[in-house]
Every structure is written in C-alpha cells, then in structure tokens.
Amino acid sequence: xxxxxxxxxxxxxxxxxxxxxxxxxxxxxxxxxxxxxxxxxxxxxxxxxxxxxxxxxxxxxxxxxxxxxxxxxxxxxxxxxxxxxxxxxxxxxxxxxxxxxxxxxxxxxxxxxxxxxxxxxxxxxxxxxxxxxxxxxxxxxxxxxxxxxxxxxxxxxxxxxxxxxxxxxxxxxxxxxxxxxxxxxxxxxxxxxxxxxxxxxxxxxxxxxxxxxxxxxxxxxxxxxxxxxxxxxxxxxxxxxxxxxxxxxxxxxxxxxxxxxxxxxxxxxxxxxxxxxxxxxxxxxxxxxxxxxxxxxxxxxxxxxxxxxxxxxxxxxxxxxxxxxxxxxxxxxxxxxxxxxxxxxxxxxxxxxxxxxxxxxxxxxxxxxxxxxxxxxxxxxxxxxxxxxxxxxxxxxxxxxxxxxxxxxxxxxxxxx
Length: 417
Ligand SMILES: CC(C)=CCC/C(C)=C/CC/C(C)=C/CC/C(C)=C/[C@@H]1[C@@H](COP(=O)(O)OP(=O)(O)O)[C@]1(C)CC/C=C(\C)CC/C=C(\C)CCC=C(C)C
Ligand SMILES: [Mn+2]
Fold this sequence. Notes:
This protein is mainly alpha-helical and 417 residues long.
C-alpha cells in the first residue's frame, strides 16, 4: 500500500500549514477529490502523529507504515479513507445535529411523562446509576459531584449504559457473549431511545435523552467497538487503534457534549468542541491501554500498534515476557507523548464548555492524565505494576481544575487580542 500524506487548511492553528493542500504520492492527479474530502482540522490530527516519530509534515513515510497516513491508496489505486477521516465525518454530523436541535424547539420522541415509570421510580433509577458510577469509577464520580444536579444524573445514566455495554465483553459472562447478543443489546438501545426502556437503568437513560439533544449514533458505535473486541485482539497500526479508541471511548465524548453544553459566549465552532471531546475520549483510552498492558496481555490482548512495536524492535513475546528494557522505555515514551498530545487537543475544548461543566471535565482530564505520569514514575513497568494516582494527588487536582474552569474560553481570548 502506498502512503500519501496530506496537508490541509487548519484555521486557528499556528503550524504554518494554513491554506495549503499538499499531496504526495500517486494520488497527485486526484488532489481535487482530496481537497473536498480532507476536513479542515486534518492537519492537526496528522501532526499529532508525525510529532511522535519526529517526521516532518508533508514528509513521505515508507510503503509499509500506514501509521502516519491520512489517506492511502490500495493496490487497485483507489483512495482509502483513514480512520480519522471516518471519525471526523461522525463529528461533523453530530455537530450539525446539535446545532439543528438547539435552533428548533424540541420535538422529542420521548417526554419524561411518557415513560412508563412514576417520577419516584425515575428518582430511584438515577440514584442507582449514581451508586454504580461511584462503585466502578471513583474518579468520574468525583467529577460528576461537581456538576449541576440534572447534568450529573444524565452523566450517571450514560456512564451506566457504557459500563454495562463494556461488561458484556469484559465482565464475568464475557465468554458467552456472541455478536447476536450485541445485536440484541443494540435493539434494546433503539427501544430505549424510542421511550421503551427494558429496566430501571435503561429508563434513566430514556429520560436523559428526552431532556438533552443526544443522538443514538455514538451509542451504536460503542456497541460496534465491543463487536471488534470479540473478533480482534491485535491492531496492525495506529489507524486501526484510533478507530477502536473512537468506538469505545471517543463516543463517550460525543455522548457527553449535549449534556455538558457549550458556553453561550464561546466563539468556537460546535465541530471544534466535539473534536476536543473526541480527543479526550481517545486520550483516556490510550492512557487506559498504556496502563493495562500487562493485564491485557494476560488476557491474550495487545492493543499497542504492531508496526510501531516492530519498528522499536519489540514483539508480542516481549510483552508476554514483561521485562522492562531500554527498548521498552523508549517505545513507551513515544506512546505517552502521543496520548499527551490528545489531552492537549482536548484542553482547547474544555474552556468552550458551559461554565458549570468545565470544572468536572478539567478534573477528570487532569486526573486521567496523571496516570501517564505514574507510568513514568514506575519506570515504565506497566507489566506488573498498575499506575495509580494517590488520594492526595487526586484531591490536589480539584482546586487546580477549579482555577482552570474560571479561565475565559480560548476562542474569546483569541478574539479579544
Ligand atoms: C470539550 C470536551 C473536552 C468535552 C468533554 C467531553 C467528555 C466528558 C468526555 C469524556 C471522555 C471519557 C470519560 C471517555 C471514557 C473513556 C474510557 C475510559 C473508556 C472505557 C472503555 C473500554 O476500556 P477498557 O475495557 O480497556 O477499560 P476497563 O478496564 O474496562 O475500564 C470504557 C470502559 C468504555 C465505557 C466508558 C465508561 C464506562 C466511562 C463513561 C464515562 C462517563 C459517561 C463520564 C464522563 C464524565 C466526566 C465528568 C468526564
Ligand atoms: Mn473494559
């Protein structure tokens, strides 16, 4: 497969690439097609990847490394759309939907009172979602405690649906889960979106989607991620891993934006806020993967890109063997660097969220990112030591997050200078 790197206009980014479309390789003749397909933010997403390998933007990489490609051609000479492009199309669609729904008075399929559940039942359902969130994810729970009541309940309901979806493939009954079971779970999702929840936890989510302009696609896509977990335990390159991270985690960002809300004074585009939310999900999942290398290997799973492992002179055997060598340290440094870049991209969007949502999102971003620091502090031993952020550091993150949440949206700061 020949690789082509594309440079695209990227408003608001100061990397000197603004206004250029530069196509290398055998798609030269189809640059018109590329111009129309390349989203405005492509340059930055590409540069996240270049930076990790020290590649220069626009530089052509070898024939076998699809990692740093944004567009490629297959042996038949057809353009292959990268994962980032596919995901960016979802971002655009979600942003357009949100803008439309916020403009028009809500004509919702489900109103709270239509749910076949008394108000007291709903209260109990949300409370149970809160308990589950607290039990499984203390950090997220801490974040939600900084939210307004309505948003907090909504995030709990979303959290519980995500957790249950993940448990299907990761929980105690995972061995019995088949693609058909996931199809049934998707049918159940459609029903709850249509106001026909199967149980009280679903009812909480049905209620949530009647209150916030949330679309079904990220939920469907998360189920798709679980399907891929059933059939796949290796990722050829970062392009494949990126798609997986979108499915299981980027989707959470997309589900959350309509609940978090965008600051009325923000001058940022809705797309850019969704992109930042997506980046936070990807950053979190990359961090998860780096923290859990040993644990995943013991379940026969290696999420790290196979070609990057090979380039670093490493293989699955090194991971199963689990000895921290200099090769491993260097490899990990690059992986951590990339995860931090996604966190940085996310940071730009947090300031655009509505004031009341910024604190919890900052808190969760800072707390999750610290896991990367802990991996470093463990001298990159993520085979047998779990990177863990202690209580003291967690508590310290809260006032820092609060301080950051008071900052003006970046889009306003830029427009005022
Ligand atoms: C503009 C901007 C930055 C907006 C913020 C948008 C936002 C709130 C994004 C949240 C992103 C986020 C929290 C993503 C979750 C990523 C994640 C941890 C995914 C996990 C997947 C599977 O991984 P794995 O099996 O390897 O992990 P385990 O060992 O099983 O843990 C998930 C488990 C998928 C399911 C995800 C969840 C259960 C978490 C859902 C979280 C929320 C809805 C809470 C978001 C709330 C706050 C305050 C950030
Ligand atoms: Mn899991």
